[in-house]
Amino acid sequence: MSTATYTLVERKGHWLTGCLRDFREDRLGFLAESARIAPIVGFRLGPRRVYLVSHPDLIRDLQVTKHRHPARDPLVRRILEKTLGVGLLTSEGEAWKRHRRMIAPALHLQQVRGYADSMARHALALTERWHDGQEADVEQEMDGLTLSIVTEALFRVDSTARTATVAATVPALQAIATRQFDRLLQIPDWLPTPEHRRQRALSTATFPDGFYPLNRHLS
Question: Strand locations in the chain, DSSP E?
């Protein structure tokens, strides 16, 4: 069986900022355009090197064949840890392997099939709260629905009481994380800037005492 080879194609940008401006203006459009250029495209976002892998075979190789050696961008990991704490989504190396083994049984196909009842029940409960003529923030509603299903199905935790808080604060946390990722020069975490104080306050309100299930249950 022959193994296909793919050539890395570099996408040019500004000498200082790279492709950061184009990426900021239209993230989805920029990534879609890059994927059409080649299966592997490299570009800079300010001082950071980024590689976009879009071919299914390469994605499988990275996510399945070489999944034991996950490598996360240091900046992304740092931003996630400030929001979620240390857990499966932010750990690497032996810590990641340990967390992955602990959660593996819950992701087995037979087990996943059993989550259907929980998904249907939570979805029905959501629709029963809606009424004709009501205006709803679909993104916020879906965030809350996802949180309720995941925490109950995977971790047997009832997050109903916290769903409204999480759905309201997560968009603000995402906005802060996006600004930090897009920043050309990073601000040290130890500086007590208004943004850092707000980020800590939102994170505490959203995930008090390590509420975030992927971290709390795997720590």
Answer: 9-10, 40-45, 48-53
